[in-house]
Write a structure and sequence with these properties.
271 residues, alpha/beta, Leucine-rich repeat, LRR (right-handed beta-alpha superhelix), five-stranded parallel beta sheet, 16% strand, binds 2-acetamido-2-deoxy-beta-D-glucopyranose, Leu-rich_rpt
Length: 271
């Protein structure tokens, strides 16, 4: 009996992992789902194995490439220039202690998940130089600690959400070289003074984006003038042509009538 109890104790000591390894289930879900949504053709995520993903924060420096932990929670995810493809998992929102999300310089496509809104500690969001499509989620404005939003060089469409202007801590904002359209939110462009909050380099390279601090669209206003000119010109031309046609027609019928009158005059007997 005593032997059995001892054996059981021994086995459970072997099976139960060291109490120092505290794996947060949200961090586990976050990273395993991200691993599944990404493709890693160059093997930069070699240590993102099932075993390591089960305990992402084994030490201060995680076994997982690009992951940094603090108090057994992931606080930084930096996979810069890893040649990653695939898409951004909405489960990224489960990494609820995340302060830095830097996935710049990859070939990640698809949308920016609106679920990122629940990353309430997020200070740095750098998704620049990828192939992201779709809109900039207005929900990002709920991440009130955001210092940096860098989304430059993607294929994002739609407007810049006005709400992002309310992020008071924002010190860097770059959405240049996308396919964004519409007006630049005044809260992102104008300070109380005359200097812009973010200058034209933050917004350049978006064909249909307009407003201060971008220079006025000269080519577009020129073409508007050209279109108005062509319209007015062709209108005038058609007026002149129809007027001339009416005149000619009148002249012809007048002559015809005069000739008729002449004939009638000749046929009429004189009294
Ligand atoms: C975002 O990442 C790119 C590439 O790693 C870097 O060059 C850029 O400076 C970062 N943006 C900000 C605002 O720090
Ligand atoms: C922003 O600043 C520009 C240039 O100083 C000015 O023309 C424009 O009216 C301002 N817009 C707002 C909304 O204050
Ligand atoms: C915009 O501001 C940045 C610094 O915030 C500066 O490096 C850059 O030269 C400025 N660009 C323009 C076009 O003024």
């Amino acid at each position: 009996m005593g032997f059995l109890v001892l054996a059981f104790f021994g086995i459970s000591l072997l099976v139960v992992p060291s109490p120092l390894v505290v794996a947060d289930p949200d961090d586990q879900a976050c990273l395993s789902n991200l691993r599944q949504s990404l493709q890693d053709p160059t093997g930069k995520l070699a240590h993102w194995t099932k075993e390591n993903l089960a305990a992402p924060c084994r030490g201060v420096i995680s076994d997982l490439e690009g992951v940094t932990c603090n108090n057994d929670r992931i606080y930084k995810l930096s996979l810069v220039g890893f040649s990653l493809r695939g898409s951004l998992s909405p489960f990224l929102s489960n990494c609820s202690n995340l302060q830095t999300l830097d996935l710049s310089y990859n070939q990640i496509s698809g949308p920016i998940p609106a679920e990122l809104q629940s990353l309430v500690n997020l200070a740095v969001l750098n998704l620049s130089a990828n192939s992201l499509t779709g809109p900039i989620p207005p929900q990002l404005a709920l991440c009130t600690y955001l210092n940096i939003i860098d989304l430059h060089r993607n294929q994002l469409t739609g407007p810049i959400p006005q709400q992002l202007g309310y992020l008071v801590r924002l010190s860097a904002f770059d959405v240049s070289d996308n396919h964004l359209s519409g007006p630049i939110p005044p809260l992102l462009a104008n300070r109380s003074g005359n200097l812009p909050r973010f200058n034209s380099s933050s917004f350049a390279g978006n064909k249909d984006l307009y407003g201060y601090p971008l220079p006025p669209m000269r080519s577009k206003s020129l073409s508007v003038i050209a279109i108005v000119g062509i319209g007015l010109g062709s209108g005038l031309l058609s007026l002149v042509i129809s007027f001339t046609a009416v005149c000619v027609w009148l002249r012809v019928t007048e002559q015809g009538m005069a000739a008729e009158e002449g004939k009638v005059g000749q046929l009429m007997p004189d009294y």
